[in-house]
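Handout, section 4.2: multi-component inputs.
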Amino acid sequence: MKALLLRDLRLAIRAGGGLGLGLAFFLIVIVLVPFGVGPERELLSAIAPGVLWVAALLASLLSLDRIFALDFEDGALALLATSPLPLEGAALIKAAAHWITTGLPLTIVAPLLGFLLNLETTAYSFLWISLLIGTPALSVIGTFGAALTVGLKRGGLLLSLLVLPLYVPTLIFGAEVVRRGADGLNATTPMLLLAGITAVAFALLPFASAAVLRVNLR
Amino acid sequence: MSVWEYANPRRFMGWTAPVLLWVFGLAGVALVTGLIWGYFFTPDAARFGSTVKIIYIHVPAAFIAINAWIMMLIASLIWLVRRHHVSALAAKAAAPIGLVMTVIGLATGAIWGQPMWGTYWAWDPRLTSFLILFLFYIGYISLWAAIEDGDTAADLTSWLCLVGSVFALLSRYAVLFWNQGLHQGASLSLDAEENVADVFWFPLVLCIVGFVLLFIALVLLRTRTEIRLRRAQALERRMARN
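Output:
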C-alpha cells in the first residue's frame, strides 16, 4: 500500500503539471471573481466563504480523470486488480494520493486567496480547518466518479456531471463552517456534519469504487 | 413457481401485453375523473384562490418524481443481486419518466409560486432538493447513454443509483440545514393532524392514483421497447456474423 501511494505521488509530482495545475486553476478562479462581481470590499468579503469553497471544489475536480485513466490505459490497473492488495485498498490509496496532491495544497494556499477576497479575519482558521476536513471527502467521492467513467473514451465531461451533484452536501457544510466563522457564530454543528460526511465517504465509497472498477476491467 | 419467473423476458412480454392495456385504461379513467372533478367541481381555496387547482398536477408529479427514483433504486438492487435483465431495463426505462415528472413538478411549482410567493424561484429546501434530484436524473441518463455494452452499462448505472441515493438523501437534509424555506409542509401524510381539506383531498388522491398507474404503464411500455431493442441488436449482430 505504501509503495502504491509513493508511486502515485511520484507520478503526480514528476509527470508534468498535475500538482501545480489545480493550484493555478484555484488562483485563476479566485482572481476572476472580483472581475465578475466588482471590487467592493464588503461584497467580496460577504461572498468569500462560498467562492473559496466552490473554487476549491472545482480545482479538485480538474485532476480527477487522471486518477485511473493512465493506469487503465497501460494495464497497470489490471495488475493492481490481480495483486494481493484488495482493489478496495487500492481505490482508497488512489483517493489518498489524489488528496495529497490536490486537496492538501489547496488547503494550504486557501488562506492566501482568502486574503485576496477580503475574508473576515475570524474566518481564516475556519476556512483552513473546513478545507482540511472536507477536501478528503471530495477526493474519495471523485475517485468513485473516476472509477465509473474510466472505461469511456471521452469521460471527462460526464465525470463532472456525475460527481458534482455528489459534492453538494460537502459543499453546503464546508461553506457553512466558514460563513459562521466569518459571522462569529458557533460552527461546531456544520463542522461535525462535514467530518461525518468525510468519515462515511472514506468508510463506504472505496467498496463502491472497487466494485465499479471490477465491472470496467471485465 | 416463484415470482421471479415473471422476470424472464419472454414471460414478461407475455403477461405485460394484456396488463398494459388495462393499466393505461385505468390510468386514463382515474386522471380524467380526478382532473375534471378537481378543476370544475371543487371550490376555490380561501387563501390561494383558483391557483390552488394546479395542485392536481403539481403534487402527483412531484410524488412520482421521487418514487420513480426509489423504484430505480430497487430495480438496480435486484439487477446487482439477481442479474435479471428486465430489472435493469426497467430502471433504464423509468429514468426519463422520472426526469419529466421532476421538470413538471418544478415548472408547475414555478407557475404557482409567482402569484403565491411573488417569485418563480426561491432557494427553498424543497425546490433546491428537486433541482438536485433533476441533476441526479441527468447524470444517470447520460451514463446509460455513454456506455455501449448493455451489461456494463447496467452495472455501472446501478452502482451510480445506489451511491446517488445515499447522497441525494444527504443533500436533502443538508439543504434543510442550509436554508429554511417558503414551501408549505407535506400536503398528504397519514400521521398529520391537518391535511388538505376533504373537498380537495379526494380528487387529489384520485389524480395521484392516476399518475401512479400512468407511471406503471409507461415503465412497462418502455421496458417492452428496450427488450425489443435488445432483441433487434442481437439479431443484427447475428446477421453481421453470417
